Amino acid sequence: MARTVSDTQAPVRLGMVGGGEGAFIGAVHRMAARLDGQFQLVAGALSSDPARARASGQALGLAEDRIYDDFTAMAEAEAARPDGIEAVSIVTPNHMHAAPAQAFLARGIHVICDKPMAATPGQAQAMAQAAAGSDALFILTHNYTAYPMIRAARSMIAEGKLGQLRVVQVEYAQDWLTEAADFKQAAWRTDPARAGAGAIGDIGTHAFNLLEFVTGLQIESLAAELHSFVPGRAVDDNAHVMLRLQQGARGQLWASQVAVGRENGLRLRLHGDKGGLEWDQEEPDRLWFTRFGEPRRLLTRNGAGMPEPLQPLTRIPAGHPEGYLEGFANLYTEAARAIRAHGTGGSQAQTLLPTIEDGRRGMAFIAACQTSSAQDAAWVSLDP
Amino acid sequence: MARTVSDTQAPVRLGMVGGGEGAFIGAVHRMAARLDGQFQLVAGALSSDPARARASGQALGLAEDRIYDDFTAMAEAEAARPDGIEAVSIVTPNHMHAAPAQAFLARGIHVICDKPMAATPGQAQAMAQAAAGSDALFILTHNYTAYPMIRAARSMIAEGKLGQLRVVQVEYAQDWLTEAADFKQAAWRTDPARAGAGAIGDIGTHAFNLLEFVTGLQIESLAAELHSFVPGRAVDDNAHVMLRLQQGARGQLWASQVAVGRENGLRLRLHGDKGGLEWDQEEPDRLWFTRFGEPRRLLTRNGAGMPEPLQPLTRIPAGHPEGYLEGFANLYTEAARAIRAHGTGGSQAQTLLPTIEDGRRGMAFIAACQTSSAQDAAWVSLDP
Amino acid sequence: MARTVSDTQAPVRLGMVGGGEGAFIGAVHRMAARLDGQFQLVAGALSSDPARARASGQALGLAEDRIYDDFTAMAEAEAARPDGIEAVSIVTPNHMHAAPAQAFLARGIHVICDKPMAATPGQAQAMAQAAAGSDALFILTHNYTAYPMIRAARSMIAEGKLGQLRVVQVEYAQDWLTEAADFKQAAWRTDPARAGAGAIGDIGTHAFNLLEFVTGLQIESLAAELHSFVPGRAVDDNAHVMLRLQQGARGQLWASQVAVGRENGLRLRLHGDKGGLEWDQEEPDRLWFTRFGEPRRLLTRNGAGMPEPLQPLTRIPAGHPEGYLEGFANLYTEAARAIRAHGTGGSQAQTLLPTIEDGRRGMAFIAACQTSSAQDAAWVSLDP
Amino acid sequence: MARTVSDTQAPVRLGMVGGGEGAFIGAVHRMAARLDGQFQLVAGALSSDPARARASGQALGLAEDRIYDDFTAMAEAEAARPDGIEAVSIVTPNHMHAAPAQAFLARGIHVICDKPMAATPGQAQAMAQAAAGSDALFILTHNYTAYPMIRAARSMIAEGKLGQLRVVQVEYAQDWLTEAADFKQAAWRTDPARAGAGAIGDIGTHAFNLLEFVTGLQIESLAAELHSFVPGRAVDDNAHVMLRLQQGARGQLWASQVAVGRENGLRLRLHGDKGGLEWDQEEPDRLWFTRFGEPRRLLTRNGAGMPEPLQPLTRIPAGHPEGYLEGFANLYTEAARAIRAHGTGGSQAQTLLPTIEDGRRGMAFIAACQTSSAQDAAWVSLDP
Fold it and tell me: What is the DSSP letter of A204?
């Protein structure tokens, strides 16, 4: 049974697991939660190191009795408080997602979990079971799905503006792991035990998820070559994948963390028999749209000619750039709405929030790529 | 005397004048104040219409007794509370900046004021006197000065990377007032009584301020032609200005709200005898830098080769876009630091926060443009 | 009386004055004449230095008896030959345009003359008289007018797609004269006696001419500040000009040869009450078009949705870039057509080829800028 | 034995097979041959239709006795003339390359042949034998290799500026065959008998050739999926290929003629362990270069900081765009030099001109892609 949620517009009471001082993604989650004023961070197990957990909690202004160094203790204590957290953000390394997710779900506390869902299929399955057995929501932060122009692209495709999709090209290229690195962010992401996979997991799953989200088509099978270029690296740092999608569409996916010159280059190019779309995460407010036989159009967030339904996802007028944090905040604000609606019978299925099923599917994608690559890029099915 | 400020990292207690439901810039100030968690909005005189003031305050979760419909009452009540506001954001139309600024400054409450400072030079002068007579800070939200790449540009120029500046081109072009408009945002901005000026005030002052901020050079004189293209419009909607700056630099400034095809196109192009810089607000994370005789370089926020000192102004890695709200939030977060430092002897002069003097200078710029334009674009001095 | 011209499609017989080895613009004229096979270079007075004239002529494969070191001798000899040249290209420095133009026009030989027309108004007037007294054509190579997308822009404006023009911004920015230079191309261009003016003449006239060509509006008056930044330079290297055009349009023009980071940046931005256009010479196949209230469209040469009438100006499909030489060649190929048509009664007025009047107007523009600048940027009329 | 070639700088005497009225690529070859004045077209078998051959030859100003309707007759007659052609351009559909190539090579006339070399491996082999048995040159017009910035990229890689290459991404995307088409250009290109392959042959071979040319690395094996999206189309119109290159590099290639929104999008992205390069054919004068850990640099043709050796490949200063025809002309002008050098002992191997071996390799690439695709994208070796 889920906890009683606020029935007013008071901020949702939020806890966090992971995200202590120096962490990247934890700070992002906090800013995303804060931007629209829909959450208030009130508790945290921010580190498994007690001293660091305490220092981090104090810096964030948490009450002393709600700073925990053990997420199980936190789950128990918060579940027992009348003013306990309604939701928890899990922002630990991949291999540390499953246990806290189970602990909070079991107590009816909504889980907002970073991606990929887990480091192993076994962990993912355990999480899925926990979610199935709980009334609480499980939201996976595939944040790129919440960019306004991505939502616009999804709507346009659903409305048939591209016609039948034929060719889809998706890539996610970075260069920050071009050389061997041992700083914190790099260390766990290149450790098979903690990350489960390399580029294909850390960013490939984003590309995979975004492609399916935008096109509405599932990938049916794939042929992948994962490669590790940096000497001594134990996980892949480059992935080339060929895709066969529903309805006969074909595609290529490229994920790389050794593409010198690229910062955070997540790009989609989608071509149907009536039109085409191009989008680049580094210019997220822009979407190129071409109707076959007509000049290219540059659509912009809140720009001239854009449909109204995107308005709830944006905050400021066209030409005033919104970025990564605003996109991430869209997910949190939708989560707040879903959490409130949940108390009155709403279902996550009525939202576009990524689910446990998206998480499972991302894990299946990683596994399929690894299987294919081990078999010399043989085609591997990705069950629906 | 200024009020006692928090000596912990607790959020600064903030009030707001203006910014009721439907307002654009008020919501921006609130998001900017919220993003880094350095402020908590606890009081507001959000509208002069009591019903709207109340509804707006409730929607924002303000306590009933801190929702005011009169800023004077708010200033008095908050000054008297032990937990009263430490700072107030003034986000009313231009002609309504002076009175509340005076009211709060007189009570030692720090003022964060939207730009331009006022609708008339007289109002501006009254505000300057009030600021001079108060120990409280007066911060003008020329938000574009707080973009990380703008700060980078300023540093590079100060370090001599462009050599002696020669030619500066600045423009701020929009198209949202291409046709006569009577919706709220447009209505007061095209009313001489409430706005004081048209494009030259609303956006020209941003361009002017940003140019002086980045170059470190003052404009000594100018020749301007203000024009109103839309039938029936009582203020300028296009401004062309020639500039003579310190050290012999020359420039052009263009501000327009009728430039069809432009959304929020604030651009700087700066050319010295050793190098050049280009920046466009619609791609704020990018800065083009050319050393004479070398290829153009594309510098990016947190990107390879960027200096460390910008780090406090940014939140996320390169390639993860930050935008307008993050730039605006930089100003608020710096304001929070200044407010805390103020309690322990710090001075606004130790920061880069725009001051009452920037406000006065912006008003002088508007007046000089209007005078020049009335004299057929004669050169008019802009006293230092 | 004009010489008899080819009545077949045989190439037009062409001579050249100037353009010896090492010259920039002479080689450009030759490539432009050659690209479409409509001209054959058969004679030349390529240098006033006899040895260089001979070597240059031989390198180009001219017959020995048609290599001249004196343009007057060339005019006489060619006029007397039954296979004499039909047209001559004059590609000398500005102060050496008038004399050869007069010599060839007087003998009915068509003149294709580089811009600006002359170094002084007196020279320009003499040329105009010579043209008026001759039946031969006088074509000024304002080559940028012949880019396909510029012709498209002109047509769109003529058809009313921008509505009433309001604001026009034109600039031509280069950086190659950022430092004092004494190589050949720089030497005469910075010599008042040979060039007549600096940036305002060398590139400002291009910007001026292109603006009037595209908009169909004449500049009625202007206020200019010419400046010379490089120590020791005797001509302007930067020009800022405010413009008042017919029908109440307003504009700014910027010409600079000291804009570090800019290579050959001729740009037009045109805003009417119904739409806007943007064009950049460095991406000449692209034209941004915005209808007010609709997304921006990126029109391309031969691209989807472009009108047919541009076809004669292009050679290859969309996406296969055409550049500066193709644009210049368009002028030459139109000149060949005009020369042939002239033999059968056609008039230059039926073409879009720049005329002696364009040349005169360009000289008037230079003079007006110099006059205005000398009077502290006072407004100066530019008679129609 | 090759025919005696000009020992002066007189234009090389050129014939053409194919390229009659309405043809695209024939006209391109003629403009490319003409631009630098190094060739003179004097003979042609421009069509197999006698009337069209005659009309086309007349329109081009060929002498009546050198207009042929049969390339064999042309080869014989021209070989017998003292002023016969020195070289012939073959611009027929792919299946009609082999026979004329054999006919001219057998008579010692140099062959400049459009790509891909042939429609079948058998034809290609016959051509290779003919070339081996002839002293004449065989030059394949992989024109994109002659863009100046492509040559710059090749040099930079050879000099080690990217370090060890790791990941290469190459694509060639167009949209002109998005729908079934029966106009001339489309008809033969989608006919298996005449073209031999679809997108993979028409544009995929360009991408393949360019990748190997620039990187200096051969593709060792590939896995391909060719697809035909347009109903009724008998050849592939989209190709996805995974690549394994020498020295352990990995890559993806994409060729498509149904990518709505793309005009002629040939792009290279090359990433080594020290640096990266990006190039787009639609902006051919630009090359992005990143040294790992430094800001991106935008190199331009003849721009600041570019090396001198590229000068022979360019005609005009930076910022004056050169395009497709200039790149193609570079190949022709290099061919003229090679033809002249050949007469004095020079060898094609001393040039960068694409050879019969490039042609053979392109055919092997097509065949490997077709084989792989027929085997469900199994890896297929591409012998060196």
Answer: I
Q: Could you give the CA distance from residue C239 to residue C255 in angstroms, rounded to a whole number?
A: 5
Using a CB–CB cutoff of 8 Å, tell me whether D276 touches chain A.
yes
Note whether A251 and D239 are within 8 A (CB): no
Chains A–B, number of C-beta pairs less than 8 Å apart: 106
Percent of chain B with pLDDT over 70: 97
Check CB contact of B305 with chain D, cutoff 8 Å: yes
pLDDT at A284: 98
Q: What's the angle, vertex CA D365, arms to CA D129 and CA C316, rounded to 5? A: 90
Decide if B167 and C225 are in contact by the 8 Å CB cutoff. no
Q: How far apart are CA A131 and CA A140, in angstroms?
A: 12
Interchain contact, D294 vs B300, CB within 8 Å: no
Who contacts A344 (Cβ-Cβ below 8 Å, separation ≥6)? A7
Q: Above 50 in pLDDT, residue C352? A: yes
Q: Determine the Cα–Cα distance for residues A328 and A199; give it in Å rounded to an integer.
A: 21
Which residue of B240, B376, B379 is in closest CB contact with C379?
B376
The domains located in chain B, with CATH, are 12-144+332-353 (3.40.50.720), 148-316+362-374 (3.30.360.10)
Best mutation target, B13, B56, B282, to test chain A (most A CBs within 10 A): B282
Q: And the tokens for B278?
A: 């280009």
Q: Is A292 an interface residue toward C (CB < 8 Å)? A: yes
Of B59, B176, B325, the CB nearest to A322: B325
**pLDDT digit string, tens, across residues B177-234:** 999 987 777 888 888 888 889 999 999 999 999 999 999 999 999 999 999 999 999 9
SS3 content of chain D, % helix, strand, coil (to 5): 40, 20, 40
What pLDDT, on a 0 to 100 scale, did the predictor assign at position C367?
Answer: 96
Q: Which residues of C touch B291 (CB under 8 A)?
A: 260
Pairing verdict, β B138-140 and B110-113: parallel
Q: What is the pLDDT of residue D311?
A: 67
What is residue D91's predicted lDDT score, i.e. its pLDDT?
97
- Residues facing C219 on adjacent strands: C245
- B299 contact residues in D (CB cutoff 8 A): 295
Q: DSSP 3-state assignment of B320? A: coil
pLDDT of residue B308: 65
Helices (H), chain B: 25-35, 50-59, 71-80, 98-106, 121-132, 148-158, 184-189, 192-195, 199, 205-215, 324-343, 356-374
Per-residue model confidence as pLDDT tens digits over C281-321: 999 999 999 999 999 999 999 999 887 667 679 999 999 99
Closest C-alpha to B112, from B141, B86, B133: B141
Q: How high is the pLDDT of residue A75?
A: 98
Residues 6+ apart with CB under 8 A from D154: D213, D214, D216
Q: Cα–Cα distances in Å, from B204 out to B162, B210, C165, C304?
A: 25, 10, 22, 38
Tokens 């508790």 belong to A43
B260 in A contact zone (CB under 8 Å): no
Q: Which helix (H) or strand (E) holds C232?
A: none
User: How far apart are the two ends of chain A, measured CA to CA in Å?
Assistant: 29
Under 8 Å between Cβ of D148 and D310: yes
**pLDDT tens digit sequence for C51-98:** 999 999 999 999 999 999 999 999 999 999 999 999 999 999 999 999
pTM of the shown model: 0.96
Residues A61-97 have pLDDT tens digits of 999 999 999 999 999 999 999 999 999 999 999 999 9
Distances (CA, A) of C77 to A71, C44, C84, C107: 100, 11, 8, 11
Nearest-CA neighbor of B53 among B74, B65, B31, B70?
B70
Q: Given phi > 0 = left and psi -120 to 50 = alpha, else beta, which region is A126?
A: alpha
- Say yes or no for a CB contact (<8 Å) between C258 and B271: yes
Q: Which residues of B touch A6 (CB under 8 A)?
A: none
